[in-house]
Specification:
Elements lengths: L3 E4 L5 H8 L3 E4 L1 H20 L23 H12 L3 E4 L2 H15 L8 H12 L3 E2 L2 E3 L5 H11 L4 E4 L2 E4 H7 L11 H6 L3 H32 L8 H4 L5 H14 L3 H6 L8 H4 L1 H23 L7 E4 L4 E4 L7 H29 L1 H4 L16 H17 L21 H31 L9 H13 L9 H14 L10
Parallel strand pairs: 1-2
Antiparallel strand pairs: 3-5, 4-6, 6-7, 8-9
Helix pairs in contact: 1-4, 1-9, 3-6, 4-5, 4-9, 9-11, 9-14, 9-15, 9-18, 11-14, 14-15, 15-17, 15-18, 17-18, 18-20
């Protein structure tokens, strides 16, 4: 991915994720022209006193209160200040950058009517890594998260830069900028739309895409230690099930396990393997198919205008349209789907971990311990995996059905897209830890195999990467520290279907 993402045509989830992970963002000339033209339409609406929600009226249940021209700037400022009421821990750096990138992308469609000066200030903050502090709780959709960004634009709020907290006014000063005086509609546009959920959703898609490849790799390591069927994940029988994801998982596992002497040694010793091993193509494949649908929804959202109201026409013939495009129902449903899929992936990984450590089924030393009885080995870290899988099941309850009534019955159905994305990211964090436990346990299992049968070339390469980070475990150090190292390895290493790491 390029070091700078150029925003011209609608961005994709991959581009949002690239910006979230450090790439710069810049506008094309065409995007600038769209933004400027839309601002001209808003100015014409103000000049002609054509009624438009949040332009010359109040917001929410106050939508029928007319706001005079001399008070429209005050309205924009007050919207930011009153809506900035999020609570809880701040979003992390990547999450904040993803939300800002999606917000800028939404404005760049040219239907919001926000000024180019606002966009340039947002870009300056983003590209300097001067990131507004966005509290993670208190949003039913978008308002509180986005208002925290708007605060910094007017010289209020706080930014985080290089680990330090900086007042919003000082953050702007460091960039050679002055606080903005927001004009008509700008306050509303800054808190509106689905960029919060879309940005977080793009990040969730990127993380699940990454972890899916690791889940297949972890499976290969575990299967090599425990499997028994002569032709695991064979192409012909798998082809009988219509699922692109299933076929991809089958291809991945065949590549990972190609040439395994360990599997050849155990082939035929039982008729069929347990479902946590045998059903991996069906389960991992279903997750891949679900992800493909979520990707379609997120990219569709990024190509959509989600402001309200939207402006169209021209400065000569301005039009304003009150719609409900800021409602993120599609994103809420998609993020709930992704959350459930990720929880399923962690659940089957935890079952494989149990089979690795359980002497009743593994054929390996009890709990992969170095010494019988004296050492507990991986006994309790399997408890940790079970706890995280259970937490995922709780988190996977659908946020999009939470409902609620706000703004004196004006907003009487809520779809909770941002909370849905937030909890999906929490589940993905747990999934990453569970996979780290499985990979570490599988490496331990290799070292406890009887005989000298060789691993497959690709699993051997992955085993070596693990052993570069953590040695064989002998109950001589806290195991959670070792898991943290492999968790970081997973986070920072791309692992493709060919079994190669980068």
């Amino acid at each position: 991915m390029a070091d700078t993402v150029i925003l011209d045509t609608p961005l994709t989830w991959k581009e949002i994720a690239a910006v979230a992970n450090g790439a710069a963002l810049a506008l094309s000339d065409q995007a600038r022209q769209r933004i400027v033209a839309a601002r001209g339409i808003v100015e014409a609406l103000v000049e002609r006193e054509i009624r438009g929600y949040g332009i010359n009226t109040g917001v929410g249940a106050l939508c029928d209160v007319i706001i005079s021209r001399e008070n429209q700037q005050a309205l924009s400022r007050n919207i930011i200040l009153s809506h900035a009421c999020g609570v809880g821990q701040p979003l992390e750096k990547a999450e904040t950058r993803a939300v800002m990138a999606a917000q800028i992308a939404n404005f760049a469609h040219g239907y919001s009517g926000i000024s180019i000066e606002v966009i340039d200030t947002l870009l300056a903050l983003l590209n300097a890594d001067m990131l507004p502090v966005i509290r993670s709780r208190g949003s039913v959709g978008y308002l509180t998260h986005a208002a925290a960004i708007g605060l910094v634009l007017i010289g209020e709020g706080e930014c985080r830069h290089g680990g330090a907290l900086i007042p919003g006014g000082e953050a702007l000063q460091r960039l050679g900028l002055a606080p903005l005086t927001l004009k008509a509609k700008e306050g509303l546009s800054l808190v509106n739309g689905t960029p919060c959920a879309t940005g977080l959703g793009a990040l969730a898609v990127a993380r699940l895409s990454h972890l899916l490849d690791w889940a297949d790799a972890a499976t290969a390591m575990t299967y090599e230690n425990l499997g028994a069927q002569a032709d695991p994940f064979a192409e012909m029988p798998l082809a009988l099930r219509r699922s692109p994801g299933l076929q991809q998982v089958g291809r991945n596992l065949r590549r990972w396990l190609e040439g395994s002497a360990l599997l050849a040694k155990s082939a035929g010793s039982r008729t069929q393997d347990p479902l946590s091993l045998r059903a991996v193509p069906q389960v991992h494949g279903a997750v891949r198919d679900a992800l493909a649908h979520v990707i379609e929804v997120v990219d569709r959202e990024l190509s959509s205008v989600t402001d309200n109201p939207v402006v169209s026409g021209s400065a000569v013939a301005p039009e304003v349209h009150s719609q409900a495009h800021a409602v993120g129902a599609a994103l809420g449903l998609a993020m709930d789907s992704l959350a459930t899929a990720a929880a399923e992936l962690a659940a089957i990984s935890e079952r494989r971990i149990d089979r690795l450590v359980n002497p009743l089924v593994s054929g390996l030393p009890a709990f992969l311990a170095a010494g019988s009885g004296v050492c507990s080995g991986f006994m309790i870290i399997q408890y940790t995996a079970a706890a995280l899988a259970a937490e995922n099941r709780r988190l996977a309850a659908p946020a999009s059905l939470d409902g609620g009534i706000t703004s004196a019955l004006q907003e009487d159905i809520l779809t909770h897209a941002t909370p849905a994305a937030d909890k999906a990211l929490a589940i993905l964090g747990n999934l990453q830890t569970v996979l780290a436990i499985e990979v570490t346990a599988a490496a331990q299992a290799y070292d406890l195999q009887a005989g000298t049968a060789a691993k497959a070339r690709r699993t051997a390469g992955l085993y070596d990467r693990v052993r570069e980070k953590v040695p064989f475990y002998r109950d001589d150090r806290p195991l959670n520290g070792e898991i943290a190292k492999i968790r970081t390895l997973i986070e920072t290493t791309d692992i493709g279907p060919q079994g190669e790491t980068a």
